[in-house]
């Protein structure tokens, strides 16, 4: 497949490193950037045959099959409009929109044009995430009760992120979009998110948006999603997830502690990993960043989806749901209350209740808890099914 990439900044280079780094049949064919110098530099660095400073010309290049949007947040909608008019499949970086409404327009544009809208949510494609999600789907950890995702770093690298108008917000829109979608995948994309409670503050930087936030997303089946995001964290990029199920637990650490530790006096000049603050002392490099961050699997899914006329795992619809959740988080941060999630388009189940099946101990009792105590004996906490009385029985193991 021949690809046009719009933008030549930070994420465009990550994408290009992924697409050009290994032998792939999908190749960058066209690049658009605002200035000729940047467009030409990118084209030279990645051997892209054509470069433009006009976005429509780049998209409409006759040999282009699919367009990747790697532009600042306020430009996603205009770029998608051009792709829809040109009937070119489009893959857009995160966050899809600055608001749920903007994201809904984008989703409608691609659906009306009959093109594929792939949502480039890389952290839902990391090898660790994919394996974890498979375990959840295989029922290895039972019913998911709580899924927590954290992304925290010392703040983004470009001016427009810090401008609320252009970015749509602060750490919530920038990092919360990842965390919300990670938790939503674990809990189940068909389960309706109903309410959000969020605390957000501007703790360090002189900006209008939040640089730190914590939020809870309540799902219709009783599960809870939690996001923790910050642009104030010192020490690199902290990417961690926790999933708690009725039959098991998953802990993921995707970046700072991946099993690769290195000490340096700092005499060298080498790049360590994204958002690393220092190149001396004990360091946590990442072996293959584009792979560990999910970009390789993400593009494989996207191009295969186009080729086989199926949906990718992350679509514009998913990006739109995430934006609607972020809207509710901002409302909650302002009101200090739980706020309902407004989802004008919802394609999952409307079911609210979840069925809990308790463990039977015997005909008359439920087993609440069983534990082996330090003396080796077993304690069992039971509840009488008729009277509700809770009692404890001790099993002396030497008598068993
Ligand atoms: N993990 C991820 O998936 C990830 C990581 C970083 C950034 N992003 C996303 O990628 C997008 C770009 O972020 P970035 O980090 O590459 O930023 P960046 O500032 O490094 O690059 C932004 C690109 O947009 C262009 N641009 C900015 N303002 C423009 C304007 N007014 N007209 C035309 N072009 C303009 C810049 O020239 C540059 O090519 C954002 O939506 C961001 O949220 C995603």
TrEMBL record:
Limits of the GFO/IDH/MocA-like oxidoreductase domain: 134-250
A GO molecular function annotation here is:
nucleotide binding
Q: Where is the Gfo/Idh/MocA-like oxidoreductase N-terminal domain?
A: 1-114
- Provide the alphabetized UniProt keywords: Oxidoreductase
Keyword field contains Transferase? no
Q: Which InterPro entries match?
A: Gfo/Idh/MocA-like_OxRdtase_N, Gfo/Idh/MocA_oxidrdct_glycsds, GFO_IDH_MocA-like_dom, NAD(P)-bd_dom_sf
Q: Which domain of life does the protein's organism represent?
A: Bacteria
Q: What is this protein called?
A: Gfo/Idh/MocA family oxidoreductase
Species of provenance: Mucilaginibacter gilvus
């Amino acid at each position: 497949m021949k690809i046009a990439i719009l933008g030549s900044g930070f994420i465009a280079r990550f994408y290009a490193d992924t697409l050009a780094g290994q032998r792939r049949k999908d190749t960058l064919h066209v690049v658009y950037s605002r200035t000729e110098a940047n467009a030409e530099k990118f084209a030279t660095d990645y051997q892209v045959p054509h470069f433009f400073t006009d976005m429509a010309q780049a998209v409409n290049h006759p040999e282009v099959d699919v367009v990747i949007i790697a532009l600042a947040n306020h430009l996603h909608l205009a770029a998608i409009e051009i792709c829809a008019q040109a009937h070119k499949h489009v893959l857009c970086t995160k966050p899809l929109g600055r608001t749920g409404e903007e994201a809904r327009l984008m989703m409608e544009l691609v659906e009306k044009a009959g093109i594929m809208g792939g949502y480039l949510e890389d952290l839902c494609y990391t090898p660790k995430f994919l394996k974890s999600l498979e375990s959840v789907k295989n029922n290895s950890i039972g019913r998911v009760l709580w899924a927590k995702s954290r992304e925290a770093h010392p703040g983004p690298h470009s001016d427009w992120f810090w401008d609320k108008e252009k970015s749509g917000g602060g750490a919530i829109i920038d990092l919360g979009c990842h965390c919300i979608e990670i938790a939503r995948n674990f809990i189940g994309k068909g389960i309706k998110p109903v309410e959000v409670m969020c605390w957000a503050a501007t703790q360090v930087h002189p900006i209008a948006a939040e640089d730190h936030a914590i939020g809870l997303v309540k799902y219709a089946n009783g599960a809870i999603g939690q996001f923790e995001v910050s642009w104030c964290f010192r020490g690199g990029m902290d990417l961690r997830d926790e999933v708690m199920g009725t039959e098991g637990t998953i802990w993921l650490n995707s970046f700072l502690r991946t099993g690769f530790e290195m000490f340096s006096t700092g005499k060298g000049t080498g790049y360590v990993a994204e958002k690393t603050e220092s190149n001396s002392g004990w360091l946590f490099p990442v072996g293959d960043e584009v792979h560990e961050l999910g970009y390789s699997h993400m593009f494989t899914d996207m191009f295969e989806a186009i080729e086989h006329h199926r949906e990718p795992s992350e679509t514009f619809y998913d990006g739109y749901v995430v934006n609607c959740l972020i809207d509710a988080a901002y409302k909650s941060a302002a009101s200090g209350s739980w706020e309902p999630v407004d989802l004008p388009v919802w394609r999952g189940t409307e079911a609210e209740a979840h069925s809990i099946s308790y463990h039977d101990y015997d005909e008359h009792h439920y087993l609440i808890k069983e534990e082996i105590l330090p003396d080796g004996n077993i304690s069992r906490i039971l509840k009488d099914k008729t009277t509700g009385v809770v009692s404890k029985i001790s099993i002396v193991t030497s008598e068993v």
